[in-house]
Amino acid sequence: MFSRQIEIGGKVSKGLKALEEKVFNENFCAVCGACLSLCPYLRSWKGRVVKLDDCTLEEGRCFAYCPRTEMELDEVHRGIFGKNYEEIEVGPVRKILMARAKDPIFHQKAQTGGVVSALIDFAFQEKMIEAGVLTPRNGDLLPQGQIVKNRKEILRCAGSSYVSGPTLEAFNRGPWKGEERIGIVGLPCQVLAMARMKISKLDKKTPIDRVVLVIGLFCTWALDYKPFMSLLHERVGGHSIKKLNITPPPERILEVTAGNKLYRIPVDDLRSFIRPSCRVCLDMTAELADISVGTVEGKEGWNTVIIRTAVGEDLLKRAQREGIVETRLLPEDHLRHLKQASLLKKRRALEAIDGKGGIEKAYVRLSTDLIQRILSESKGIKT
Amino acid sequence: MKSIIQNIPGKTVLLMGNEAIARGALEAGVKVCAAYPGNPSSEIIGTLAQVADEMGLHVEWSVNEKVALEVAAAASFAGLRGLCAMKQNGLNVASDFLLNLNLTGCRGGLVLVVADDPAGVSSSNEEDSRIFAKLGDLPLLEPAHFQEAKEMTTFAFEISEQLGLPVLIRSVTRVSHARGNVCLDELPQSSHRPGFETNRPLTAFPALPHHKILHEKFNRAKQIVEASPFNIYRGPEKPELMVFTCGSGWMYSLEAVISLNAQDRVGILKLGTTWPLPENLVTQHLRQADRILFLEEVDPFLENNVKEIYAQNCLTLGLKAFFGKTSGHVPDIGELHPENVLRAIQSIMNISYEPRPSDYAARAREAAAELIPDRALGFCAGCPHRSTYWAIKVALALDGRDGIVLGDIGCYSLGIGPSGFGQMKTLHAMGSGTGLACGFGQLNHFGLNQPVIAVCGDSTFYHAAMPALANAHYNGANFLLLLLDNSATAMTGFQPHPGTGETATGKEAPVIDLKAICEVFGARVEVVDPFDVEATVKTLLNLLQDEKGVRVLILKRECALLSAKHQRRLFRVEVDQKRCLGETCGCNRLCTRLFKCPGLMWDKSAGKARIDEAICTGCGVCAEICPASAIRKEKI
Amino acid sequence: MFIPKDPFNVIVGGVGGQGNVLASQILGEMLIIQGYVITIGETYGASQRGGAVMSHLRISAKDQFSPLIPEGKCDLLVALEPVEGLRILAHYGNPGVITLLNLRPIHPIDVISGDIVYPELSQVIAKIKELSRQVWALNATEVALEIGDPIFSNIVMLGALNAIEVLPIHRRGFESVIVDLFPSRTLNENLMAFDKGREVVQKIH
Asked: Are the Cβ atoms of B585 and A38 closer than 8 angstroms?
């Protein structure tokens, strides 16, 4: 199932054939969109990536960019951070803070502190970027990538539907003028795909080298669109859904705002819809981003912010200076909790991978040493 | 002047077998001609339609074969001569009426021509329609060449009137669709006023007395065929082998016997009246030889019927050896041709034969095996069906529920093959796609979760799918019907139909609007242009997911051959060689490897696609699907 | 001029849509007005749909022959497409056959798709030459495109056939047949195609 290679005519395939067998057939597609709009044989439809026809190429970008095909994690990290992967808790870190946007406009629709929207908006104002690739949802809560150019469009992308969407499809598709600097907000799988795009030696034909800012979003899992939607529609009837929010533990309730009413669905009812792709994901905090942003449990209206690169650090500093966001130190117990949650996701992913045929056959290659560290440091962590 | 209406007795003209039949009908003074087109029968009525006005005929393309036979029969009931033509499948449709018509009989001469398609070259099936003559106790004639096709048709009208029965003429592809010399006879000047004798009703009920009358008529037919000039013997008085043949087998046999230099050893009895058989003539020829070979197309009809006669007379005839389809000396499927006829005679007679020097034959076959690529059938360049199936393929893949496409009869039947991306999964009779969908569309009650699609052409819809659509709405079947409206009965040669606004004789006709019919039948109806691939995919997906009863999508785009005929070319198309990605990642030859329109070429040395300007019809669909926008279309 | 033997067997072959049926019909009409007994058979099956097609023409001074030529009995081959010419020779050819060949290939869809290859043209021509007593070759499609429409390739080939003087046909006969069969507006183009075909072959002389 997890065997690393498939062969076509005696050659190891790194093309669509391999992608189909190792990712689509195994239901490991993360629907990140990295393979879309590059290729006429792949299209997304209602939360799935669909293969339309066979491709005979032995090597292709679809396979090379996918966050669920064979990769050496050290190689990816060397390409982005210039060094091997060592920081097993939450990835490379310059600073970890809590923050929130000052302008209340960013709070209205945002999941928590509005930091992501505020930072992207600020990056535009600072002329750091001329285009953003974000993820709005359509009327059916189906997330889709979109190129945004102004605040109004940015605000439309705030919030979450707990479903992953092919954000990178929009990035690949454009249209691009060819000069613009680009900022992207993505889930860990999407950030990983961007990193793979960046370091790939294949002829790119994407604007990856003009991406100057990557903001990652924390993610524990995403739901399979179709069954999740049928459940929602079953619970709320014909009303159109305005907002979804999951309350912090220990309650963990999905609050659905629909037709002026609030419906409450226990998160445990959703677990069976978690994408298999998320169960083998090692990354909760988008470890390859410039800045990663998530919630802070128990601190309503604040975001956790992990600064990983000089670009991220500089942006946040300026945003603070200009009064766009305010920051505080993340309390020690919250920091500990964050690291534990991240390690727990890694541990569970390793276990899931192990159950599927052994860690040595997994899509992502890690040194035995790192695997041992993750397993020992995550020992005893409870949800 | 059209050869078909030249009134120059004695003049020899080149006519197709179907034209010869049409001419025969004209010489017999036919007045009403009706058919539904179907190869290899289409040119019979097609030819008559062209001369209808000059000859004062009523000629029509009826919506289906049963109606066509009813139209021709009505003329006969009113005392005029009527002609109806169809292919073998058509007789299945018309058979319900035919097997009542035999009991009522007819008045004016009524001739039903059935052109069989041995090997099913342009049919969904291979079928021998002669069995219907036996089934209905109806006289059956089989022309063996062009002159006979004409003469037999005239004769058929005469005996139809003598007997008061419709007469069947069974033609085959190699008679109907071949051309040869035909010597013309006079065209009659007749003006008979029709009238129906209301004091002599025509009803099949009560069946028994009518069945008795039919048998009496049939016995009279047996007398008539004994003297028929269409039954010919050629050969020695006491041949070593007696060939019984009919239709196309006649000329193959003659040539084979000459090639084998066996004129003194082999006799050939060619029968033109194959039902009822001339029993005396048959017995007499059975007596002359101990070895009998049957050469005929499709089923062993002649073979079995002659064996019946033999069984009745075996005490006086003595022992015989029979060869044919039953013995395996003649293939029991497919057409007769010079080789299999020659081989049959050769193997029975044990004569050696070499058609050409063996070393040449070996070299020729070797060259063929080494160099000749297969030439698979496919849709024409610019055919709207190609883009329709492309859209179906994409929509079904995106939908992801393994949708089923139920097929129907027409050019689009090629959807079973690579040119239609193998999308079509069933293929039976006219209208069967929609009928099957009525059934599949009920199976979700049992847990079927695959979406159901039926495809149907415009002409096929009027022919046989309308009742199925009514059934669908009435019984609440859940499916999507795609009407592939190319404004033509393209497969059979562009005959007009109720949707085209034109009659068989080129007169203006009311258009029976497909959309309006479907709406009356309670369906949600959308219309798209299949050349707009993306819009078609979207609409398809939308309709597939709206699973409430029957939905109809009309894919409206004129047949590419019609557009070419009327010089309605849409675009000038070319491939920007710089932008073409060729075999690289991001394309990998989508247009040539998968879409495969014959107007495209793969330039292997350049690694780029090109347009073949000798074939491209300028539909511009390849420009739509090119992922690199390298194919450019420029409006003409 | 008479037919070289009786029956004289001609095959006009090519790809569906190239007009082989029409070419053979015109040829038949040109011969019947001279008193010959003609039979034309067609493997028309899916003639408009890109398949291999051919028409069989049997010419006799006395008898009607069957619409199909027996194996190895083709006397004259008019090939509208190279590999189709070879395909016909493989079954119907013999050491005495004369071949008139249009050099322009039409790729089968499986060649377009890359599933199979179209053989080297030079190899195909060499084989056709090896299997024929005499070969006349021209690019009739190109000539037709010069006239303005590839549809005239078959008429160009008929002109070429006239020029090689194997059959008792002439331009006058062609003209009278065309006048009978086609709308008058196409007369000039058809005559031009016929004449160009003749010229091209006369140049080969």
From this structure: yes
Q: Taking the CB of residue B516, how many other CB atoms lie within 10 A of it?
A: 11
Instruction: Give the number of C-alpha atoms closer than 13 A to the C-alpha of residue A255, restricted to the C-beta side.
Output: 13
Inspect the interface and report whether the beta carbons of B398 and A50 lie closer than 8 Å: yes
- DSSP structural state of residue A223: B
Q: Stretch A49-61: mean pLDDT, rounded?
A: 95
**Does B251 contact C15 at a Cβ distance shorter than 8 Å?**
no
| Confidence bin at C49 (pLDDT 50/70/90) | low
For chain C, say whether B360 makes contact (Cβ under 8 Å).
yes
**How do beta strands B58-61 and B241-245 pair?**
unpaired
CATH topology classification for C8-204: Pyruvate-ferredoxin Oxidoreductase; domain 3 (3.40.920)
- Band (pLDDT 50/70/90 cuts) for residue C47 is very low
User: Which position has the higher pLDDT, A367 or C128?
Assistant: C128
B567 touches chain C (CB under 8 A): no
For residue B217, give its domain range: 3-190+204-226
**Cβ–Cβ contact A168 with B under 8 A:** no
- Residue A2, pLDDT score: 39
Least confident of A115-129, B2-16, B396-410: B2-16
Distance between CA atoms of residues C109 and B234, nearest Å:
48
Between A109 and B319, whose confidence is greater? Answer: B319
Which residue in C has a C-alpha nearest to residue B39's C-alpha? C45
Q: Do A45 and B398 touch (CB under 8 A)?
A: yes
Give the closest residue to B521 by CA, choosing from B548, B478, B563, B551: B551
Cβ distance B541 to A45 less than 8 Å, yes or no, reads yes
How far, in Å, are B452, B457, B468, B517, B536 from residue B549 at the CA level? 11, 21, 13, 16, 20
**Count of domains for chain B:** 4
What subunits make at least 3 CB pairs under 8 angstroms with C?
B
B199 occurs within a structural domain: no
Among A199-208, A271-280, C85-94, the range scoring the smallest mean pLDDT is A199-208
Is there a domain that residue A90 lies in?
A: no
Could you give the count of Cα atoms lying within 13 Å of B333 in the half-sphere of its Cβ? 5
Q: Provide the pLDDT for residue A1.
A: 33
Interface predicted TM-score of the whole assembly (ipTM), two decimals = 0.95
